[in-house]
Specification:
It is built from 36 helices and 23 strands. The protein is an alpha/beta fold.
């Protein structure tokens, strides 16, 4: 049973959280004070106890009459400080202390005399005289023990091991040997933790103090604190029965371990940890009335008050994931179980037709989709963020009560929803721009969970447009890490979480693990079922880390095995071999290119020449930095096909890029001497895009069908129905990441399985490239042609923007052109400090009023974008204001300067791509990186770009620092990119690649018994409405 003082603390906290409205108890605190004083006074065992009760009662009687919130706030704060002994006893009460001490001493002497007489009549001769004992206090203790025993029996059973250990500790006995071993192991694993003494379970409603229960009602605690001197003066201690002596030893051990590690079962309790550099309460010379209660850490009553601390066990450290013997599965039964994962979600209990449609909306069609529908984040209720402790630029999850809501009129008559949320420690303003309709969904008094970034406005902490949902009390009671899933309208977090929990608990231990045990041992990975459970409901951060590691490994392993299987499948259909002699190739290179090729270019040409000479179709990725000379290699590959009388095609992502290739490649191939060609006529190159007229399109179709056209360059129009080739032997795709696998497959289907070369200017680390593009052989052009002038890169501050404008103006006056890149298309209320292209375009027209300024962004139609780029290329614009669409585009040899605003918001490889938009002519070129953040890490990242001209080095740094999230997007798999790409470390990618190739070389068809389930899982991957190639 909680003491009267503990009950009062809860009520005072509730009053504070409710805004000092005198609603914490029925009838108000003034009427409550009378009953409370009657209950608390008998529990006072010392004079200072009784004076404290009287002082509190007097203050509460005046509470109703207080007219302002500040008065009530000060009163509650003072009472809390008195309870925790942070405020001294007033002189008026201290003056009464001697009188009460004499009264308490006389009462104690009378009780001692009465008990001494009774005890002497029963004591055997020769025994030392025992100190007087308070029989009433012992009866109270016994009553409380009986109550706790009944409460333990009523509570649900706990883990047998922890319950048994607690029982042994309660009896003062040693635990069994196996439990002792586990405790010794914990001490070795966590030497920094203090020893913990298990205790019998308490009623959750009774908020106990620290690791023991010390209240005014517990007379035994006061005797231990104050009667030892009497015992020493009166001689030896009397003999006691073994059970009573065991209880006393147990109490002593609890006192010694006060403040130790909390119990295994988490529950809200009051705690009093030592404060900073102050001595522990055990060592302070303070009245026992405060020291024994330990209601709360004094730190939590400074300024804005914190809610009750949670008695939460330390998170389990997990150096290695657990592994258990794999259960025996009949191979046929295991395959059937895996096939059962493709059953529709409607087969899951609790999912009807309406709910099935909602689940389909978020991408869940099958049970397998449910299992791998990962949370977008986790809310850790073992680490609550208090509003009073928030700082600027923190990404946090906050829990609180809505105190106020309103709709405010913002800029351009925009209606914003504003609310004030309070968590008991402080309040915070939250703004949802343009979302006035939230007033119908969020009401005063509701408890919400908010997740987002903090900012400062008017010297106050705030959040703008955070994610939010209604607080589920079950999450707080569970005190665990809770998953937060993507939702759609009509799908509630609580329903989805329960559905996931039922599904995971049912399937996790039933799904056969398809990865061979030998692989898991070598890679030190968790079992599949364990990983699935902790992906959704992790026990700790370490559990989540190991579960994610297994999940990412599986994705990479299955992806590579699927890609390798597809590669083997399409390689079974032979291609047309293209044999080119050394003499013919050298004659072509010396005639067409007036400059010597780099060693990297020649190596790439030799790789292609060797591949296309085989009947096995080539599938090669040509990777080269901006300006490294990939086009020269592509021209040579096209020419090798034509020199053998075959046709070739090149597909580009946009019409403007296709037209650029058409002019450049066509002009180069015109220089090929007809005498080395098989038909003795010049090479004919055609352009096929969506913008050509019907007559031109018909002419191209006919020329391709009868073989008059040797090379066609175009866009998606090349793979449209109606395009037929006489003998297509080679297909080239430029900027391959802009195409999905369906388009690549369609281009391959236009001929007799032609050789395929894909090119990219996006640097990808070799390890990642060989993983994500496991079906492609890799050629890298890692040398730059001689004579290319490097782009000078500068990191500049906001204050230097005008100086940069002056520099750009000077370049424009010399006839040059400039790019100015912004991270956003239009201004965002959620990022008010980030500049946007549309808004700045209006300003820049005034800044560069002597010159023509154009605007290009991704929301324009493709035809509009092509037209603007063509105008810029033809110098109809001097300045192009743009967004990230400028990352890959046409050559503008006359562009000599690029300014990137908000450069800290782009990846390193992306910044390098922007830099490659200039420096393509013979002019000195410049790149300015302007950050909208002064954070040290943001500036350091920009300095990496400034100091490193190599795109592959920058991509590798991006990979090491930020994972593969920004890089794996270069592979479009039809259904979406790999999940958790930002967590794909180089070490894990290399590990999965090595294991996949080991399995593939050992068992290319995956027919061995240990690979049967893996083969079934790879087959499922290919059937999940996604192409893998």
């Amino acid at each position: 049973m909680p003491s009267a003082l503990e009950t009062l603390v809860k009520i005072l906290k509730l009053e504070r959280e409710q805004g000092y409205k005198n609603t914490a108890v029925m009838g108000g605190l003034s009427s409550f004070s009378q009953n409370w004083e009657r209950t608390a006074s008998p529990q006072a065992r010392r004079p200072e106890h009784l004076l404290l009760v009287q002082e509190i009662s007097a203050a509460l009687r005046q509470y109703d009459a207080m007219g302002t919130r500040d008065e009530r706030h000060n009163t509650i704060t003072y009472l809390m400080d008195r309870i925790t002994n942070r405020a001294p006893m007033p002189e008026t009460y201290r003056a009464r202390l001697p009188e009460l001490e004499a009264e308490f001493a006389a009462r104690a002497a009378a009780q001692a005399a009465e008990q001494g007489t009774a005890a002497s009549s029963e004591r055997p001769p020769g025994d030392a005289e025992a100190p007087p004992r308070d029989n009433r206090g012992r009866r109270d203790q016994q009553d409380r023990r009986e109550q706790r025993r009944e409460q333990r029996e009523a509570r649900p059973p706990r883990d047998q091991t922890s319950a048994a250990a607690a029982e042994h500790e309660r009896r003062g006995e040693r635990p069994p040997r196996d439990q002792q071993g586990r405790r010794e192991q914990r001490r070795r694993d966590h030497p920094d933790r203090r020893p913990v003494v298990a205790q019998p379970p308490h009623d959750d409603s009774s908020a106990q103090t620290g690791a023991t229960s010390n209240t005014m009602a517990d007379s035994g605690a006061y005797e231990a604190a104050h009667d030892n001197t009497q015992h020493e003066d009166r001689g030896a201690r009397p003999p006691r029965d073994a059970r009573e002596q065991g209880r006393e030893n147990q109490q002593n051990r609890r006192r010694e371990n006060k403040g130790s590690q909390p119990r295994e079962n988490p529950r809200p309790v009051m705690s009093k940890p030592p404060r900073g550099d102050q001595p522990r309460a055990d060592d302070e010379d303070v009245p026992a009335s405060y020291d024994d209660f330990g209601i709360e850490s004094p730190d939590d009553f400074e300024g804005a008050h914190g809610p009750v601390k949670m008695d939460i066990p330390m998170p389990v450290k997990l150096a290695r994931p657990p592994r258990r013997p794999r259960p025996a599965f009949d191979p046929a039964e295991a395959v059937d179980i895996l096939r059962g994962l493709n059953a529709p979600v409607a087969t899951v209990s609790g999912v009807g037709p309406k709910m099935e449609k909602l689940l389909n909306k978020v991408g869940m069609y099958t049970i397998n989709d449910l299992l791998y529908f990962l949370p977008r984040r986790y809310d850790d209720y073992t680490r609550i963020n208090y509003i009073s402790r928030l700082q600027e630029n923190m990404r946090v999850t906050v829990i609180g009560t809505v105190r106020h809501t309103e709709v405010r009129i913002g800029r351009n008559s925009r209606r914003d929803f504003y609310m004030v949320i309070d968590d008991g420690t402080a309040s915070m303003g939250v703004t949802f721009f343009g979302q006035f309709y939230l007033q119908r969904q969020i009401r005063t008094g509701q408890q919400l969970r908010l997740h987002g970034d903090t900012s400062i406005y008017g010297n106050r902490i705030q959040m703008t447009n955070p994610e939010w949902d209604y607080l589920d009390v079950e999450d707080l009671q569970a005190v665990r890490i809770v998953p937060v899933y993507p939702l759609t309208e009509g799908l509630t977090p609580r329903f989805l979480r329960r559905l996931m929990e039922r599904t995971i608990n049912y399937w996790a231990d039933r799904i056969p693990d398809y990865v061979p045990e030998s692989v898991l041992e070598r890679a030190d990975l968790a079992d599949l079922g364990w990983a699935l459970k902790n992906l959704h409901f992790p026990e700790s951060d370490d559990h989540l880390m190991h579960a994610r590691r297994r999940f990412i490994f599986d994705q990479l392993l299955l992806l590579q095995l699927g890609i390798l299987a597809n590669r083997r499948e399409w390689q079974r259909t032979p291609s047309i071999p293209i044999n080119v002699s050394d003499e013919t190739l050298n004659h072509f290179l010396n005639t067409v290119f007036p400059y010597p090729l780099t060693g990297a270019q020649r190596r790439a040409i030799e790789d292609i020449r060797r591949d296309i000479a085989q009947t096995v179709p080539m599938n090669r990725l040509l990777e080269g930095d901006v300006g490294s000379g990939k086009t020269a290699v592509a021209v040579t590959a096209l020419a090798m096909a034509v020199l053998q009388g075959k046709q070739a095609a090149l597909m580009a992502p946009t019409s403007i890029l296709a037209e650029q290739h058409y002019r450049g490649i066509g002009k180069t191939l015109e220089q090929v001497p007809p005498e080395i060609l098989p038909n003795g006529r010049p090479i004919r190159v055609a352009l096929l895009t969506g913008s050509i007229n019907a007559a031109e399109r018909t002419e191209v179709y006919e020329g391709l069908a009868n073989g008059i056209i040797d090379v066609v360059i175009g866009t998606h129009a090349i793979i449209q129905e109606g395009v037929e080739f006489r003998e297509l032997a080679l297909a080239i795709i430029d900027e391959q990441h802009r195409f999905g696998v369906e388009q690549r497959g369609a281009l391959r289907g236009k001929g007799t399985n032609p050789h395929l070369l894909v090119m990219t200017a996006t640097p990808i680390p070799r390890t990642l490239a060989l993983t994500v593009h496991a079906d492609l052989d890799l050629s890298v052009i890692d040398e730059m042609p001689p004579g290319r002038i490097p782009v000078q890169t500068y990191v500049v501050w906001h204050s230097r923007r005008e100086r940069v404008y002056e520099f750009i103006e000077n370049e424009l006056n010399q006839g040059r052109q400039a790019f100015i890149v912004y991270p956003l298309v239009e201004a965002s209320e959620t990022m008010p400090d980030v500049k946007a292209a549309v808004d700045e375009y209006e300003k820049l027209q005034k800044v560069f009023f002597h010159h023509k300024v154009g605007l290009l962004h991704g929301r324009m139609k493709p035809s509009e974008k092509d037209e603007i780029m063509a105008d810029f290329r033809d110098h109809r614009f001097d300045v192009l204001v743009t967004t990230s669409v400028a990352e890959v585009g046409v050559d503008i040899p006359n562009a000599s300067v690029i300014l990137i605003e908000g450069a800290n918001r782009f990846g390193l490889a992306q910044l390098h791509q922007f830099r490659g938009r200039v420096g393509r002519g013979g002019h000195a070129s410049h790149c300015f990186l302007l950050s909208d953040s002064n954070a040290a890490d943001a500036i350091e990242r920009l300095k990496l770009v400034r100091d490193n001209p190599n795109g592959f080095d920058l991509a590798q740094r991006d990979f090491e620092q930020r994972g593969a999230g920004d890089l794996i997007g270069t592979r479009q798999s039809g259904r979406g990119d790999l999940q958790l790409g930002e967590l794909m470390s180089p070490e894990l990618v290399a590990l999965a690649q090595r294991e996949a190739r080991t399995i593939y070389e050992e068992d290319i068809d995956l027919t061995l018994p240990e690979h049967r389930l893996l083969a079934q899982r790879v087959h499922m991957l290919k059937d999940e409405r996604a192409d893998v190639s």
